[in-house]
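Last lecture ended with a question: if I hand you only a sequence, what can you say about the shape of the protein? Today we answer it with a concrete record. The protein is Transcriptional regulator, TetR family. Below, first the input exactly as provided, then the predicted structure, then a couple of comments.
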Amino acid sequence: MTARSPGRRPGGPDTRGEILRAARESFAGKGFAATSIRGVARDAGVDAALVHHYFGGKDELFVEAMALPIDPRQVAATILDGPVDDLGRRIVTVFLGVWESPDGQQRMKALLRSMVSSDQVAQLMREGLTRMVIAPVSKALDVPDARLRVSLVASQLVGLALTRYVLELDPITTEPAAELVDRIAPALQHYLTG
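The predicted structure:
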């Protein structure tokens, strides 16, 4: 019989699952800002290096733990890839693209309902999305009230998601996504640069 070496346990068959469980609990209980890789590792009973091995960093851990259908950093990169004068169109196109996919719609509905019914989930999503999407988009605008402008866009998008996918309010629900992009993009662009 060999003696077990001191320290944290190595990765096992469900180590990744244990890390995700600990991360979900930490994100839900403490929020994004107060959650740390070391704390998650401690709660999962593993070394912090193993969390980095599986997830890379806190942003990746957040995306996995929340089971987001798309990485918010990729969303920000896609939105920012082009001229500022077309930002509103790119934002609504990417947003509807996520929601229009069957897997994306199912996950986003669950997430939206959770945010509306749970202050903890709302705070967690607010902190994570602010860091990974709102802050980079605001920085690209290079105006003093950029955060307000991007927040106004977010308010429009949340309203669109509620009316199209949760309340299923006609004709918004039955309107083709391309038509919604054409109608909503100018309003979003006005918020951003008007």
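Comments.
1. Confidence is low (pLDDT under 50) at residues 1-9.
2. DSSP finds ten helices and no strands in the chain.
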